[in-house]
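User: Predict structure, ligand 2-acetamido-2-deoxy-beta-D-glucopyranose.
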Amino acid sequence: MSKGFVSIVLALATGLLQLANAEVPAIFILGDSTADVGTNNYLPDSNITANYPHNGVDFPFGRETGRFSNGLNTADFLARLFGFKRSPLSFLAFNGTYGIKKRQSETEEFLSKSLFFISVGSNDIMGNYHSNYPIPKEQFIPKLAVVYEKHLRNLISVGARRFGIIGVPPVGCCPSQRLSANGECVKDLNDQAEAFFSTMDTLMRNLNFIDVKNACCGNGTLKAESFCTPSAKLCSNCHQYLFWDLFHPAQAASKMVAFKVYSGEPEYVTPINFSQLADAY
Ligand SMILES: *[C@@H]1O[C@H](CO)[C@@H](O)[C@H](O)[C@H]1NC(C)=O
Ligand SMILES: *[C@@H]1O[C@H](CO)[C@@H](O)[C@H](O)[C@H]1NC(C)=O
Ligand SMILES: *[C@@H]1O[C@H](CO)[C@@H](O)[C@H](O)[C@H]1NC(C)=O
Ligand SMILES: *[C@@H]1O[C@H](CO)[C@@H](O)[C@H](O)[C@H]1NC(C)=O
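Assistant: Predicted complex:
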């Protein structure tokens, strides 16, 4: 019963290219059927699609677009909120070739400014719940988080920096799940969705500054036993460090401080901030 609902569209990507938008050059939407804008139709191994009536009855041009919806979905609305004028009708499956088209540094820059929305988890939770041998939630949710973290770190390693992680909604209240529960919500599924949220919350907080202890460049314990000289060891990704060397903050931390000083609230800068100071003359 759940199988029909569970459409497995893992790692779908929708690149909404609008290079004119310098701040956010692209939004990548990685998700399951709730975020699919029709990419599914073009995947050779995909056999769960929605490109037929009555899907899309309320779509602006009455087309069946491949969305599991009467009209638009969250991916569409997010794209609009971020100023992308077109719906993600044109999409490209993110298959790694994008990086080859541009030089690596340009690609990293592009990816670091892009937004990555990830909307997965429902299928995993429901799939496990309905399997013949479900893994208890106390073990399953942490397992899920480990896999999730691995994928996030992969994205970080190619340059992604801005993530929007969509939690799992109370899937126990989906019609498909209520069907087997006399019309009631399945509490256990909703509990798992909540547990997933708090696990991801902790994970994301820890990913923000991956290393707040060690210097990026230096030698010895905490890389704090020598200055950053040509012979010192250099971390592979400075963006993940709070400290550059044994004394000084790395760029990301300095940027944060500058922004706070320039336009921060009184808790960071008092009695007025630097932008107000500039305005005073
Ligand atoms: C989709 O394909 C897989 C194997 O490729 C098959 O096991 C499954 O039953 C198919 N699902 C549907 C809904 O056709
Ligand atoms: C990736 O996309 C490019 C451009 O559309 C295409 O030529 C190539 O065959 C694709 N590669 C794979 C592995 O799907
Ligand atoms: C750092 O350690 C390496 C050996 O791991 C050594 O060759 C180098 O001279 C050291 N540099 C400093 C500045 O201590
Ligand atoms: C700090 O600067 C910003 C930008 O100029 C300004 O809008 C804001 O009101 C200031 N914040 C405070 C708390 O004064």
